[in-house]
Design brief:
Chain lengths: 141, 202, 458
């Protein structure tokens, strides 16, 4: 009984433990996918929302903003910008960039058409209606 | 353990001290302590969450099938007894008896899994999921997490049975059997806490 | 150098350091933009600088991992690399892809880059850290597969040690989980859910296997401690990593639309995530204290110990700080996240690659260790970079706490931008610490060119 704490035992625990928790993770993922339709607001995904998401992506909005708290921390949270500011403000804001105010953070002009901006807003509205367990804590994001 | 290495000399002497008290492999004990920690935190979280909403927990608890839970408790305790007999057998070099006792435990383990499946099936049919409420979240999480441990324990038992049959263990060399037995007892022990906590205590 | 083919590692290490320098320069640009908002606008808007900063980090770490594995695998397996030529081709392909991608970010508007590179065929771009154009993503997969293939083939014909097995497993996981970067559904919740399968399961999962293997390798070399002991602990530590880290992914699922139970699962398991890092610290110091020989490369030992401590602080402690759901509710998406991100990446991954480079580079240049003077300069660089990164983290933590207070806890919450003005002092301090970091890095690079009497092999 000399080699009581052997390397091969540690290896078996590693493989067994790793596999065990990965399987558990898969099971939880499976349950999450079952539970999502009630929470993820996917019933409101329209072609406009889909196009808006694509515009959100190809303009790298996440490079400055957060969306549901994820992204860069340079510019305001946009997961709840729809209820915070409303569609008209958002549209005017996107069109009016950059402000050019000296020394202030600048948002680029993305040259989006009115229809494009409406789609981005549709996407932000959809995102704001996802059940996020009441996050963010208040309207300021 | 013949080694010139300072650290391994020191470590192995440390392990020897531990070994006089703990049967089975030390690595598995690290694992078992970690498991206990996780389950301990889960149990505390359950108690904490229950304290915040006692009425909901009590109402939901009534919908659980206590009969199944009680039967499963008896099954697991019996299986643990079989495992004890298995270890005792290998210590006397009774390889065949050891394999029989462990196989008995394995069969009981699969009965446990079967009953658990029926129980889960009932709940899912009733439209209950982890998102139903906090009680069911804990009930399903804890019992499912435990069920995975039972399955893991069965894999370990099956491996040990196969190795026993091949004559890998003897009265002198039976660390593997004790290690597997320790894991199985832990699974049993966790259920003995889990069953009253989730099914019975109000 | 015991095996000729180990020489390919040198290319990888040089590229890693060069890209590291680029990463820091862009970090400083961003840091300044935090306080002088229109700095370099519109030439380099913040989002572009950030993309370059984070993508360079990922790429230089990958170069580091690859270089490290091409160095250590021949030595571990006791055989020449399966194909040094493939390793060299892979290097140039990856470097070209990396440089082209960065130039694309800098020279072309991102939307135009997306159009040019076939994002309309399969949209994968525009998500944090996964901004790479489709061809680059495909390139990363091919490079990872070529790397994996080369290492696996080498291992098959040689000795199979735990270190090389764990390293290969880590690489396999890296390649497999990266495939989720090709999945970008319209459903934002699913998008985010599987995005973490790349990001979290990389940095808090499979990358830690690579980290553990690299650290174990260097510790065996510089301390001379018995391989059996080191490898046994390697297994125990990475077991705890996976046990806590996999379900720990749940700490990203609190507020993105996933079910509420993740708050329990995520909190409980990620609260245990510091344990493997703590074990790693104890383990590294133990090995060095029980060393059986005095390796002439003092700097490498310092880097190795630094890795274990800073990884624990950055990934373990700073992660724990905001991982519990009730705290994360207020901390999520603030500068506190940025603080944790900086120290964790530096402490765990930047440092382990630098550890490996510190150990292997002198040998690749034909000596056991660098001259005394070079080592002293290298150690200065270690302290300057490590201390300044620690201060960056402290300043960002301060910024985060004030931000949470003013924007989220207060009964009269202030708007995001108003709060940013209030915390600009922290950003100035962070930029200052960043400059010290750059000085440290410059010193580090200079240390490679210090001449003197180098230590020969024993």
């Amino acid at each position: 009984m000399s080699a009581t704490f052997t390397k091969s035992m540690a290896r078996n625990v590693f493989y067994g433990g790793g596999l065990f928790f990965f399987l558990l993770f898969i099971a939880l993922t499976f349950d999450t996918m079952q539970a999502l339709p009630k929470r993820d607001n996917s019933q409101n995904i329209t072609p406009a929302v889909a196009h808006g998401k694509k515009l959100w992506e190809v303009n790298n909005c996440i490079g400055c903003h957060t969306l549901l708290g994820e992204g860069a921390y340079f510019a305001p949270e946009l997961g709840n910008v729809y209820p915070r500011r409303g569609p008209d403000f958002i549209k005017a804001w996107i069109k009016g960039q950059p402000t050019g105010a000296p020394g202030r953070r600048q948002m680029p002009q993305f040259n989006l058409s009115d229809a494009d901006i409406d789609d981005v807003i549709a996407f932000l509205k959809y995102a704001s209606e996802i059940n996020t367990n009441k996050w963010p804590p208040n309207i300021e994001g | 353990m013949q080694t010139t290495n300072m650290i391994s000399v020191k470590e192995s002497s440390l392990e020897k001290i531990e070994y006089q008290n703990l049967p089975g492999d030390f690595a598995l004990w690290i694992f078992i302590f970690a498991e206990m920690l996780v389950f301990g935190v889960l149990f505390i979280a359950y108690a904490f969450s229950r304290a915040q909403n006692v009425a909901l927990f009590n109402d939901s608890q009534l919908t659980l099938n206590r009969g199944f839970g009680a039967i499963n408790t008896v099954i697991l305790i019996t299986s643990s007894y079989f495992v004890v007999r298995g270890v005792a057998a290998i210590k006397k070099d009774l390889t065949h008896q050891c394999a029989y006792w462990l196989s008995g435990a394995l069969v009981l383990g699969s009965v446990f899994v079967g009953i658990k499946m029926v129980e889960f099936y009932e709940k899912f049919n009733a439209g209950i999921s982890m998102s139903t409420n906090n009680f069911y979240m804990f009930y399903l999480s804890l019992t499912f997490f435990h069920l995975m441990h039972v399955l893991m324990g069965m894999v370990i038992l099956a491996t040990i049975i196969a190795r026993t049959r091949r004559g890998a263990y003897s009265a002198k060399q039976h660390t593997g059997v004790e290690t597997g037995a320790s894991f199985w007892h832990m699974v049993d022990f966790l259920w003995i806490i889990l069953f009253p906590l989730v099914y019975v205590i109000r | 150098m015991k095996y000729k083919s180990q020489a390919v590692a040198k290319l990888y290490f040089i590229a890693a350091i060069a890209l590291f320098l680029g990463q820091i320069i862009f970090g400083l640009i961003m840091g300044l933009q935090y306080v002088v908002g229109d700095f370099l606008f519109p030439a380099i808007p913040f989002n572009v600088a950030r993309m370059v900063h984070t993508n360079l980090l990922i790429v230089w770490l990958l170069f580091g991992f690859m270089g490290a594995s091409y160095y250590l695998i021949p030595e571990e397996t006791e055989t020449e690399l399966f194909s040094p030529k493939l390793a060299i081709i892979t290097f140039w392909v990856f470097l070209a892809a990396g440089v082209l991608t960065i130039l694309g970010y800098l020279l072309v508007p991102y939307a135009a880059l997306a159009k040019m590179t076939g994002n309309d065929l399969l949209n994968t771009m525009g998500r944090e850290f996964l901004e790479q154009p489709l061809p680059t993503k495909v390139g990363i997969v091919l490079v990872a597969l070529s790397w994996l293939f080369n290492i696996t083939m080498t291992m098959l014909k040689g000795r199979k040690t735990a270190i090389s097995l764990v390293l290969t497993l880590g690489m396999l996981g890296l390649a497999v989980f990266f495939l989720f970067s090709f999945y970008d559904p319209v459903n934002l919740v699913k998008d985010k859910f599987y995005w973490w399968w790349v990001v979290h399961l990389w940095v808090e999962g499979v990358w830690e296997l690579i980290l553990g293997a690299m650290l174990a390798f260097v510790l065996i070399k510089v301390t001379g401690v018995d391989r059996e002991v080191v490898e046994k602990w390697l297994y125990v530590i990475i077991t705890m990593t996976l046990v806590t880290g996999i379900i720990g992914t749940g700490h990203h699922y609190y507020w993105i639309g996933a079910p509420a139970y993740w708050q329990w699962w995520g909190s409980i398991f990620s609260a245990l995530e510091p344990i493997p890092f703590f074990m790693m610290t104890v383990f590294a110091f133990n090995m060095v204290n029980k060393r059986r020989r005095e390796h002439p490369n003092k700097a490498a030992t310092l880097w190795a110990l630094g890795t274990s401590v800073m990884a624990f602080l950055g990934a373990g402690l700073w992660g724990f700080l905001h991982t519990l759901a009730p705290i994360n509710y207020y901390a999520h998406g603030t500068q506190l996240t940025a603080a944790h991100g900086h120290l964790a990446f530096y402490g765990a991954y930047a440092l382990v690659v630098l550890t490996m480079i510190s150990y292997a580079m002198p040998i690749l240049r034909g000596r056991a260790a660098n001259p005394e003077r070079a080592q002293i300069m290298e150690m200065w660089a270690f302290w300057l970079m490590t201390v300044s990164m620690f201060f960056i983290t402290l300043f960002l933590t301060g910024a985060g706490i004030v931000q949470i207070w003013l924007q989220r806890l207060s009964s009269t919450p202030m708007s995001f931008m108003a709060v940013q003005d209030q915390i600009s002092i922290f950003y100035w301090a962070r930029e200052g610490a960043g400059i010290v970091f750059l000085i440290g890095l410059t010193l580090y690079i200079r240390s490679f060119f210090v001449k003197g009497e180098s230590k020969a092999f024993e």
